[in-house]
Amino acid sequence: MGLSSATTTAATPEGVQLCIFDLRRGQNEGQELDKIIFFFPADLPFSAQFSVIGLSEGLITFTRIFSPEAACDAIEAERHSHVFYEAEPDIWMVMVVEKNKEFEPIWRSDALRKVLKEVHSLFVMFHGSIRALLDKDPGGGLTRSHLYHFIIDYLGDFLVGKKLLLPSFRDSLKERGTVQMLTVGREAAIEVQSLVRVLESCAGNMPCHSLILFQDLLVSTTLSPDDTVNLFAYAVLRLSPRALSSGVSSWSYLRKGATSHVSSSSSLARPGSIPEQLHGSLGNSPAGDKSSQVVRPLQPDKWSKGKDGFLVSDIWGADASTGTSATPTVFLHQTEERMYLCAHQHKSLTLIFLLPVSSVLKGDQGVSAVKQQVLENVSRKLLKVEEKLSKGWGGENAYHVSGYRYLLADGDRNVSRASPPGKVTTLTKGSLLALSKVREEVDLEKSRAKSDNAGHEKELEISIRAKNNAWVIARVTRGKELYMVLEKANETLLYASDAVEKFSNRYCNGAFSLN
């Protein structure tokens, strides 16, 4: 099961393969190639691609015999880890990661699966579901081209030198697929609510959804949780002030490439054009001559701030009637409705609002009219809100708790808060490896509870003493998870439990208290 034939070329980032295939396609002999709708690296020989996908399909079929509703999530082979994600019915994403020579458990399968889930969710937000695209494009050529450029642009943010730095044990105090919220005082919250109401009034009778960020933190949203996560992730990647500042690595918990084991002075590839080691030979890529038809929302360094404060990009082409950049559109997960996306920025405050395409008369001209209303009626509110939030902002270490390195995640609300990355770097490798193992154990227990169809949330408490004498603690209760590292040597379990109780009572309203 080591996939010895599926080795990467010297020009390709080592040790990672990512594929998407459709079980409904390529069922007849001689049509097996039709099953593959994405493969990275694209210049891998087809025989090696078939080897990876054939093994993956066999594992899925085999495990479905024992678990029809939930096929395999991950397979650990001697030399590789295989992570599976059924993105859509019968459309599977598989990541194969080569293990390092020491065979250290440097990553968690669930963390890698969340990478697959995130790139799929972002793709669907901009292009719609893969199945819908394939239904319109039976040959699959244009669908492959969309997927190829989108995923390569996404992977570019993980690239350091010639290596893809995927989430590892050093990222165990981060939670992908969640938003990080800014804590605001009562006066600031009232101002934010007033801003949202004025913004909605600018749209007239049209529905208007909004998302407001300060720095890389969420301030307000009127979207569903899933849509909030997707739009927040995109905003952090491409729209926030830090994302617009070329070469400045964001401190956000979601930002790719800002992993703790890469110093800010390292040669982080910021792909104005995606590096050759990702694209490989375009002649071998599935993009073919259809690349000119493809919209690339994740293409880096394509957004800029206009004089009026609105963010503009030429990614979506130009409006035929005015010659100005066309307004981006996204699909909402909850309603599957197509929406115009508009973003306005003032200093550290980013205001994103969405308008239904079906409700806007005259397309981009109608959007421009709403933008003008926003400039006339919202600008003063933006100034006031930004000023209040800036005064109350404690900086990048605002959520640091002395003596603790922690991650607090609320799965029901898709919200997380964690120690600042700069503080996490002070932890030793031994502490982080121990934390990764604890999180993997929690992942396994959650997966078992899900497969057992338990009608109640599983509650867990794990406390271990690492080899370096640090305490690593996990508590799971009522959809909330707390992970903590206490690097105080020679302390007792009673001390560690008391530290968790104090943290829970002060910062979590007692949610993780045992009393």
TrEMBL record:
Signal peptide: none annotated. Pfam families: Intu_longin_1 (PF19031). Residues 19-128 form the CCZ1/INTU/HSP4 first Longin domain. It comes from the Eukaryota. GO terms for cellular component: Mon1-Ccz1 complex. Residues 263-301 are annotated as: Disordered. Belongs to the CCZ1 family. This is CCZ1/INTU/HSP4 first Longin domain-containing protein. The lineage of its organism: Eukaryota, Viridiplantae, Streptophyta, Embryophyta, Tracheophyta.
